[in-house]
Amino acid sequence: MAIAPNADQEGGPRGAIMNVAMHLFGKQGFTGTSMRDIANAVGLLPGSLYAHIQSKEALLLSIVSDGIGRFLAAVGPLAAGSGTPAERLRKMIVAHVEVVADNPERSQVVFHQWRFLGEGNLPVAVDRRRQYESLFITVVEQGVSSGEMRSDIDLRIEVRTILGALNWTPEWFSPNGKLGAGEVGEHMANTLLRGILA
């Protein structure tokens, strides 16, 4: 199944359908959203949707794949960049929050609705999520090896704790809040790093 381009930038009816689906999946959940809901929100007959998309699941796969791709693109270069492991991990945490802040609704779908993909598409999302997790594992491993981070930590538990906290930010982050995404990211980095630094 082909992965759709960036849902935010895609134009025409398909772009409208993608954005409406993103909103409804975030608000009502994937299983709570019908093709009729999407069609009504876009102003099309339900049958007309299929001229632009393959299925409801294809929409979810496109949103999830595009969304994870954004996190990989923002965080991957930082993981492999310059600086100590702790400095890079801090930048990665901030970058993650900044991607969330760019579109919290999309991030909600990416983090909480991917499980509803069918068995044919679920491995695509799982593989992309593992790629992302491995960026954090590698940097923490480097921190442990250099002595900058504690050697008595369980790498996977610590990384999943960090990602678990980050992945819930779309539930409470407000683009109109007192603090910007970078500031929120710095606050989170201060808290999350404290538990693993030597």
From TrEMBL:
Pfam families referenced in this protein's UniProt entry, alphabetically: TetR_C_24, TetR_N
GO molecular function, one term: DNA-binding transcription factor activity
Protein name: TetR family transcriptional regulator
Residue stretches in coiled coil: none
Keyword Repressor carried by entry: yes
Domain HTH tetR-type: 11-71
The keyword Transcription regulation belongs to this UniProt entry's keyword annotation: yes
Upper classification of the organism: Bacteria, Pseudomonadati, Pseudomonadota, Alphaproteobacteria, Sphingomonadales
Ranges annotated as DNA-binding: 34-53
PROSITE patterns found in the cross-reference section: HTH_TETR_2
Superkingdom: Bacteria
InterPro entries cross-referenced by the UniProt entry: Homeodomain-like_sf, HTH-type_TetR-like_transc_reg, HTH_TetR, KstR2_TetR_C, Tet_transcr_reg_TetR-rel_C_sf
